[in-house]
Please model this.
Amino acid sequence: MPKVRVGDSELRYQINGSSGDPVVFVHGSLVDHHSFDALVGPLAQNLVVMSYDRRGHGESTGPRRESPVRDDASDLAGLLEAVDLYPVHLVAHSYAGAVAFRLAHDRPEMVRSIAVHESVFVGLLLEDPVNAAEAERVLSEMHRLQGLVSAGEREKAARGITEAFSLQPGAWERLAPPARATLVRHVDRWCEEFDDPNAIRPNARELSESLVPVLLTVGELSPPFLHRITAALAQSLQNATVCTLADAGHVPHLTQPHQYAGVLVNFLLERNVPTT
Model:
């Protein structure tokens, strides 16, 4: 994979496709750019597709992020400038939704649209008396899992994170051993991200002022709290479309890539933000 130096970090990336608007996959926690591999082929038929490893993930290296959301957004801006590939459509998963919204606010000239599958903005539920107790339970479980990491129980923590975002029993056991190893390897990075308040609670004013077209997808089989976060996020945005993916959960790019790719292509080819 080619590499780009951004500040003190070295980011690895790959580009597929030769025509159409540029799309950038921004992977979630615990994984690397390979989590989007099944989407690259379908999207690269009509679009230029970039995948990359965020700092500290996969083959990308760099110092510990003091403010993960802002640092990841700044890293991505530096990468896009280095390869001269913007404005782009951002396709983000889970935690990376916060990175996408941060980049769209800080560098609006770089972002045409955003597609996010199941943001983890649990803080949106804390503001709703009906959902606040559920949000507190989710946050309490995440803190418990952080404690496991601190105690050296890395695999147990990775298993717990996987199962917290799935309603289907045996989610961890269904993963291939290399996939489990990837999750365990990145669990410290997950702790960094979960500690960042910007990953949990978005800036309400920034969201309400944004005019960027946004596609919010949620899996039919995902835990209820992710459905509620998606609904709350949609209400906070001026230009959002919500789509529920049938028979899918938190990782449709792994479990239902063709269905998810079709939804993304329809959105990406029909919506654009003026570049001026």
